[in-house]
Inverse folding.
């Protein structure tokens, strides 16, 4: 972790890191990658603008146990990466701490459904 | 019995105010075979002189070298090129190690030859200048950077303007997944076996172009390549953030 850094700079830096990791040589005895590893290694690194919680609920296919994330997501007022937004959601609801991948998948799903928009 | 040498590499830019406490935490380690390399990196204060004064009482080898190339990662690379230890301990100039941190992690790695990188638990201490709270008080503190783990911040018992939070990483069977999900721990929470550090240096895992998250890339690279991580209980460190001091 380094000095305070703006979301656009962080997003660009992490996109670069992700690109380098995608070409990294793996040792012969490295454990195979699972679905969650691959998802995290290919996650969207753009900035995304949250929307109102009611809009998200309408457009989401998440189960009831994840509905709280829409309310928490709508509290975020500024664009950031989906990863950072997932962490902020979990910070407000410690019961979700172990569900980072689930939250992040849901945010990606919202993006694919057009419920949230990337910042140009 | 031969004592494994541990190289502690301390990149430093304008660290004069914090270096004495940082270096004291290394000099006072219970593990006796410690080499210390401070890498002076374009400071405008008297960091180098402060480092030399602090290191004068160290019984092991030490040096203060200069790396003019800008950036903490360039300094880290320069420090590693000078070290000769069997293990590498990265340490920022404003952080500290628990007194037996190195010993615990060396012994754990020595007895577990298949593991390459030890990691431990850590305490985050933040200086909050205008803090008004009794010692030990629990605080609902919104931190500028989100780290997974406990969020229970308390005012330190003995320092009026400092709050702290303990992060217990614990053992895990899939440390790569944690790193990919950004379960962050500071670089000095780790101890790196030399063979891993050499490989990482070769591919420049301390990427000089990264403006942030440099340690995230370093340790994620290690885990993705296949180096194995070992949690060592009780090997604690303190990560400090202060106003007006860039990490």
């Amino acid at each position: 972790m380094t000095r305070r850094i703006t979301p656009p700079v962080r997003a660009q830096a992490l996109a670069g890191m992700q690109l380098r990791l995608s070409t990294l040589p793996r040792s012969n005895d490295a454990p195979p990658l699972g679905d969650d590893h691959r998802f995290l290694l290919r996650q969207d690194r753009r900035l995304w603008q949250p929307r109102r919680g009611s809009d998200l609920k309408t457009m989401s296919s998440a189960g009831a146990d994840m509905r709280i994330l829409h309310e928490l997501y709508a509290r975020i007022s500024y664009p950031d990466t989906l990863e950072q937004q997932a962490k902020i959601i979990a910070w407000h609801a410690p019961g979700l701490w172990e569900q980072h991948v689930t939250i992040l998948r849901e945010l990606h799903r919202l993006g694919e459904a057009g419920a949230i928009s990337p910042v140009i | 019995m031969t004592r494994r040498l541990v190289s502690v590499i301390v990149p430093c830019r304008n660290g004069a105010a914090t270096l004495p406490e940082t270096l004291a935490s290394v000099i006072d380690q219970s593990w006796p075979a410690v080499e210390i390399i401070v890498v002076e990196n374009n400071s405008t204060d008297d960091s180098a002189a402060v480092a030399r004064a602090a290191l004068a009482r160290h019984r092991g080898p030490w040096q203060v070298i200069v790396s003019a190339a800008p950036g903490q990662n360039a300094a880290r690379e320069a420090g590693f090129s000078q070290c000769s230890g069997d293990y590498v301990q990265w340490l920022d100039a404003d952080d500290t190690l628990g007194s037996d941190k190195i010993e615990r992690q060396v012994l754990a790695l020595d007895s577990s030859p298949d593991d390459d990188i030890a990691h431990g638990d850590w305490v985050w201490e933040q200086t909050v200048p205008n803090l008004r709270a009794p010692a030990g008080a629990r605080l609902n503190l919104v931190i500028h950077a989100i780290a997974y783990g406990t969020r229970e911040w308390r005012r330190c018992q003995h320092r009026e303007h400092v709050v702290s939070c303990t992060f217990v990483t614990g053992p895990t069977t899939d440390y790569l997944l944690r790193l990919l999900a950004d379960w962050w721990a500071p670089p000095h929470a780790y101890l790196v076996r030399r063979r891993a550090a050499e490989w990482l240096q070769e591919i420049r895992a301390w990427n000089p172009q990264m403006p942030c998250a440099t340690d995230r890339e370093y340790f994620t690279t290690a885990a993705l390549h296949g180096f194995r991580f070992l949690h060592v209980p009780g090997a604690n460190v303190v990560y400090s953030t202060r106003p007006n001091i860039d990490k």
